[in-house]
C-alpha cells in the first residue's frame, strides 16, 4: 500500500499547512493524514484515523472492511461529498480539502463520476438522455463519437431510445456507468454498484467496469462488502476501525474472504 508521507500534513486551514505535498504523478486521487470523527467527547465515533493512500490512474480499486470500518466514509471524503477534520485530499492533482462549495460542485460535475447501488435514472428520459443529462445541465456539448463508443462498449447502442422501465436492471446500471464515463472523469466512485442486481447481472456490470479501466484507462474506486465483486478489481484496500490495515493485488474471492475473516468481517 502506498502511504508515503514524506511531507508533513497539517489539518486544513491550520498554520504551517504545506503548499506542496509529495504526490505520485500517476495518482488520480490521493489522501494524506485524513481523519474524520462524528460526535464529541466520549460518544465520538472515529470513522477515519490518519489515512494516507494513493489511487493510481487507470486502475480499478475496491475498498473493503467490516461494518463500521470507515470504508464508506473514506469514499465520501475522497469524492468531496463529506468534509474531513484533518489531512488533505486531491482529485486529479487539485487539492479539494478547502474548496468553496461552488468550486467543489463544479469539480465533481466535470471530473468525477458516480455509480450507486440505486441506478438514479430519470424515469421520463430515454437512456441516451439519462447518459447526457449531466452535460446538458452544465450547458456543455456532448462528444457524440465518444458517446457512441461508450454505448457500443457497454452494449447499449440499440437501447438508447428506451426509457428506464423498458430496460432490465443490468441495462439500467449500464446506463449509469455510461453516464459516469461520458465526461472522461478523473475518477469514478462506485458505492455497492451491484447491490441491487442478481449475481449474473452483477458479474456483467463488474466486467464492464473492469473493461472501462483496462480498455479506456478509467480510474475506478469501489466500496463493496462482496468478495466476489472485489475480485474484479486490480487492487483491494482493507480497512478496520477507520484505519488502513493492508491490501491485496488481483486476488481471488477466496483470498479476499480469508483476509476479511482475519479482520473479523
TrEMBL record:
Record keywords, A-Z: ATP-binding, Nucleotide-binding, Transport
Recorded GO MF terms: ATP binding; ATP hydrolysis activity; transmembrane transporter activity
Listed Gene3D superfamilies: P-loop containing nucleotide triphosphate hydrolases (3.40.50.300)
Source organism of this protein record: Arthrobacter bussei
SMART domains documented for this protein: AAA
PROSITE patterns in the cross-refs: ABC_TRANSPORTER_1, ABC_TRANSPORTER_2
Domain ABC transporter span(s) in chain numbering: 29-264
Disordered: annotated segments: 1-21
Taxonomic superkingdom: Bacteria
Keyword Cytoplasm: no
InterPro entries (alphabetical): AAA+_ATPase, ABC_transporter-like_ATP-bd, ABC_transporter-like_CS, ABC_transpr_LolD-like, MacB-like_ATP-bd, P-loop_NTPase
Protein name as it appears in the record: ABC transporter ATP-binding protein
GO cellular component: membrane protein complex; plasma membrane
Keyword Nucleotide-binding: yes
